[in-house]
């Protein structure tokens, strides 16, 4: 069917690709393809149509039919992002799966010139992509509060806002358990206080029990402000973050009443997203717990008392896989020794 359409000029070869890729049958079988198969199809259909003359079977090339196949705007499979992959992917598709390594080498030697030309094309494409200004499509969700759950300290008002009473510490709102694509995002909490009482609020972004962002607010006196919490969903952990588990939490120490009028989300779909990301936490002090040799001062700092023992510990946060550096800022007015540790679990010392 498609061969006839091609010969009659009703379809370009990339048009056939799109039609097949979007068909119901292809959607059902796509998940069963191996990564090598998906990469092989990518090099055939995504800008490397020159490879058709060197890969078996090129159905029309054998009959001497030349097709003008302009680049397609749609991408059915993954793109080749590393020039060095061109050789191995094309050889695999041409020779097929075999234990004979020499067969791949013979093919590569035979077609070394076109392979080198394709590698140069991929390199140029990557360089042009790096030079482009990242495009960002942002949209904003203003009605998350209606979909979020109430904590024990809060009640929902008739206008949809959520009020937390004074004297009760705990979570005010949490949820709504949603998926998020990789990108730079912002959670915005619209808060209002009407009394002169001092209270402490915590804003958090988590995925299940993985911490993405944390901010502590200390408010006193009547106020009405929007507080932004920026965070990154990295592309390198997309498999780990696939489930709809993203939630935004607002907690209070109960020092005073507070009204949450809205929880908004600005979503950014950036062209170039970092593969990894660190938690958006300005200072970890608020998450730490003091022990026998530690004391929390009014200015928020932690004081090591003149006695041996642990000063602080915690905060028992789960982080995305990655490489981290922990920085301690301190001042000392006497001599002595301190020991710094980074632990994972009860018996695993990382540093």
Provide structural commentary.
The structure is a single chain. The chain has 351 residues and is of the alpha+beta class. Strands 2, 5, 6, 8, 9, 11 and 13 form a 7-stranded mixed sheet that branches. Strand 8 and strand 9 form a beta hairpin. The longest helix has 20 residues.
Short key terms for the protein model shown above:
extended, alpha+beta, 6-stranded antiparallel sheet, 7-stranded mixed sheet, 351 residues, 17 strands, 28% strand, 22% helix
Write the layout of secondary structure elements.
Layout: H1 2-7, H2 13-21, H3 24-30, H4 35-45, H5 85-95, H6 101-110, H7 112-131, E1 136-141, H8 144-147, E2 149-150, E3 154-156, E4 162-164, E5 170-174, E6 176-178, E7 183-193, E8 198-207, E9 210-220, E10 223-233, E11 246-252, E12 258-270, E13 280-281, E14 289-290, E15 294-296, E16 302-304, E17 312-313
Parallel strand pairs: 9-13
Antiparallel strand pairs: 1-12, 2-5, 3-4, 4-12, 5-11, 6-11, 7-10, 7-12, 8-9, 8-11, 14-17, 15-16
Short précis:
By secondary structure, the chain is α+β, with helices and mostly antiparallel strands.
Spatial gap, N to C terminus: 63 Å
Strand percentage lies at 25-35%
Poorly predicted segments: 43-49, 52-79
Number of helices: 8
Radius of gyration: 29 Å
What is the number of E strands? 17
List the helices and strands in order: HHHHHHHEHEEEEEEEEEEEEEEEE
Helix content: 10-25%
Shape verdict: extended
Oligomer: single chain
